[in-house]
Design goal:
The chain has 17 helices and twelve strands. The protein has a nine-stranded mixed β-sheet with strand order 1-2-3-4-5-6-7-8-9. The protein has a three-stranded antiparallel β-sheet with strand order 10-11-12, covered by helices on one side. β3, α9 and β4 form a beta-alpha-beta unit. α9 runs parallel beside α12 and α14 packs across α15. It is globular and about 60 Å long. The relative contact order is 0.10. The mean pLDDT is 91. Bound molecules: iron/sulfur cluster (SF4). The site of iron/sulfur cluster has 9 residues, from loops.
Length: 468
């Protein structure tokens, strides 16, 4: 058959194949509808703020809300006195510092702040607080137990986590590192992770001395808070170590203050230079970020991600599954499709760690598994996140489906981590208030609590799912 014959055959075949799918309804492309315009002017305090001011990262940092007085001033006339009183009780009892950027504040729906998924993550309210789970401990991932140098966690063979500093552009209620991040609160005195030349030098010396390390996460706190020369110092030092092959700067910045990428040229250029230097050395330097809800992605976010895309900087996302924030298939599907649309790879969804003071935000492993099942297939596999449990007690990230045992009545699930701590078992606990009455009654009795854990351990040993 000649090439013209084969072209004709292809055309004939295409004409005879019926369309498998009708064109989609425009509503199903909602992930492309990004909030634009001067949306911040809806908040009275920002009604006269120009676009140039709002895009200025220094203006954002300077006007961030850090106490109830500033919140009241920003929201004057927008919310009820009852809401402010409730927030005041939340500020007083929060284990985490509070810091909210004007950008975030203007994305909250102030006609219904009680239910708003962004407000829920950043502004505590006294009326939402629930008792902590009895098995909770402040450093639930036991990061400090695996620190050869203060602020460097070496748990996995080839990877280490460098907590370079203790501040962030915002503070999240659900932060796993509330044991160290932010200033002391009435509830918690923090473990010190300030920028310190001696601590950093010891960190670099340790990394240099361990040839098995190939991958370093630079976190904190948040890499957005590093000065440009600190981005450069960390990047150049780690790139100069032969066995380091991969680095990730971890920052929530793109989700809460994308303005910095657009207007802090020194910071963005410093990051770009490290990425380019890494590329010349055939090493990977990427940005890891943390979007949790589709409304956190706006036209400003897209402009910032476009700038990073133009510079060849890969961005990956890690979300935390939170009740009433993103605990539905529809919300999570919209989030991952929107992330893909702005060139951010959805990498992980974490089951919420057991963190002090935020039991209202956790949900059950069963809910996570249902959402994962519903989301998978909504977009390409490489843009579909893996649902993980960061096993309390230091087991590291486990695929949520890999539990050895899960009792939905007591809410106890059991995981193993053979490549991290062989022979150990790790336990994750659903929030008590979401358990059936029988499970809630058992947790109410202190004598039953350890029994439930032992029952789960015995069941996992008797009938392991993954080692059958
Ligand atoms: S930005 Fe990250 S480190 Fe900082 S408070 Fe939020 S979750 Fe914690």
């Amino acid at each position: 058959m000649s090439s013209s014959d084969s072209k004709l055959a292809v055309v004939a075949d295409a004409a005879s194949v019926p369309a498998l799918r009708p064109p989609v309804a425009p509503a199903s492309l909602a992930h492309r509808d990004l909030l634009g315009g001067e949306f911040w002017r809806r908040v009275p305090a920002y009604a006269n703020v120009s676009e140039a001011e709002f895009l200025d990262h220094k203006w954002q940092a300077k006007h961030s809300i850090t106490n109830i007085g500033k919140l009241l001033a920003a929201l004057e006339g927008l919310v009820s006195e009852g809401f402010i009183a409730d927030a005041q009780r939340g500020f007083e009892r929060a284990p985490m510092s509070v810091r909210v950027s004007p950008y975030l504040l203007s994305l909250i729906d102030w006609t219904n702040p009680e239910r708003d998924p962004l407000r829920l993550q950043f502004i505590p309210m006294g009326s939402r607080l629930l008792p902590d789970h009895p098995r909770l401990d402040l450093d639930s991932l036991h990061e400090r137990a695996d620190m050869p140098v203060p602020g460097l966690t070496h748990r996995y063979v080839d990877k280490a986590l460098f907590l370079a500093l203790d501040t962030c552009p915002v503070y999240c209620r659900f932060c796993t590192r509330s044991y160290a991040v932010g200033i002391d609160t009435e509830e918690v005195s923090k473990f010190q992770l300030k920028v310190n030349a001696d601590r950093w030098q010891k960190t670099f010396d340790y990394i240099r001395s361990r040839p098995e390390l190939e991958d370093i996460v630079i976190s904190g706190g948040d890499a957005f808070q590093l000065r440009p020369e600190q981005i450069t110092q960390i990047g150049e030092t780690l790139l100069s170590i032969d066995h380091i092959r991969r680095m990730r700067y971890a920052t929530k910045g793109p989700a809460v203050m994308p303005q910095k990428i657009l207007t802090d040229d020194a910071w963005t250029d410093a990051l770009t230079r490290v990425v380019e230097q890494g590329r010349k050395l055939h090493k990977e330097v990427v940005l890891h970020t943390h979007f949790n809800h589709p409304r956190e992605i706006t036209a400003i976010t897209k402009a910032a991600m476009d700038k990073l895309c133009e510079r060849g900087i890969t961005v990956r996302n890690q979300s935390v599954l939170q009740r009433q924030v993103n605990d539905s298939v529809d919300t999570m599907t919209l989030l991952i499709r929107r992330l893909g649309y702005v060139n951010v790879h959805p990498y992980y969804i974490y089951m919420h760690d057991l963190v002090k003071g935020v039991e209202d935000l956790r949900t059950t492993l069963g809910t996570g598994l249902t959402i994962e099942q519903g989301v998978r297939g909504a977009t390409a596999g490489f843009n579909t996140p893996t649902l993980v449990v960061d096993a309390p007690g230091g087991g590291g990230k486990r695929d949520a489906h890999s539990y050895e045992h899960y009792d939905r009545t007591t809410g106890v699930s059991v995981f193993t981590a053979p490549a991290v701590h062989p022979g150990e078992m790790y336990f994750y606990f659903d929030p008590i208030h979401l358990l059936p009455p029988e499970g809630q009654a058992r947790w109410a009795d202190p004598a039953e609590q350890q029994k439930m854990v032992e029952e789960a351990r015995a069941a996992a040993l008797a009938a392991p799912r993954t080692r059958a």
